[in-house]
Design brief:
Length: 231
């Protein structure tokens, strides 16, 4: 009878050990997701939507190292990937599926916005939101951007509603700074493509009709690195 009791207790302890690992892993996944979410605005809450499935592990001290998140916005459904270690040695991978909800304030239009508009504070309002916002929902207006298309009243603004404002447009007469090692010269050029700050545009040098590429650095200003005679 004593032997049977010991075997029964051993079976219970063996079954409890994976359950304890899974509960600890679920807590670790939520903590990891919350740590990543703390770098963004608003407040996030998370819940486990699918318990993790662990592979068969050899005996030893089991630990889990978070590897990566399946997406960056941490809203809606996503998962946290983990490396499994036994006595410090790799022993497999697993994942914990979570659902994230967000509480904060989003931007909504109070007036219709035409294409290529740069909205100001009188044309938008902050509205409270709880749940899963639309993909790319904005909490602040991006600098240096304009509307990509006409937007109606009452729309929650997202990143896809905006495009960078070109600082150089095709046909513009611009200045280009040509750098070749320690040597730097400035020339006039005609833009043959458009671009915002930091983007490469095609330029034509009127004196030679040569086409070059340069980076937009300011309105009407560009810079090119002359490497081997070809910028």
């Amino acid at each position: 009878m004593r032997t049977l009791l010991l075997l029964f207790l051993g079976a219970l302890l063996g079954a409890a050990e994976p359950d304890m690992l899974i509960e600890g892993l679920k807590d670790q996944a939520i903590t990891y997701a919350q740590t990543q979410a703390d770098t963004t605005g608003g407040s996030h809450t998370f819940r486990v939507v699918q318990p993790p499935a662990l592979p068969t592990l050899r005996k030893g001290a089991v630990t889990f190292q978070p590897s990566h998140l399946s997406k960056n916005d941490l809203m809606g459904r996503f998962f946290v990937a983990f490396r499994i270690l036994v006595d410090g040695a790799p022993a497999g991978i697993c994942r914990v599926d979570l659902e994230g909800k967000w509480t904060g304030r989003l931007l909504r239009t109070t007036t219709a916005l035409p294409r290529k508009a740069v909205p100001d504070a009188s044309q938008i309002e902050e509205v409270p939101f709880e749940g899963t916002p639309p993909p790319g929902a904005l909490t602040t207006l991006p600098d240096g951007f304009r509307t990509r298309f006409p937007i109606g009243v009452g729309r929650t603004l997202t990143r896809s509603d905006f495009e960078p404002i070109p600082l150089v447009s095709a046909g513009d007469h611009v200045r280009v700074e040509l750098n070749w090692g320690p040597i730097s010269i400035t020339s006039d050029a005609i833009a043959r493509s458009s671009g915002p700050k930091g983007e490469r545009v095609r330029l034509e040098l009127p004196s030679s009709r040569k086409m070059i590429h340069a980076v937009v650095i300011a309105p009407g200003e560009t810079r090119a690195e002359w490497l081997g005679g070809r910028p």
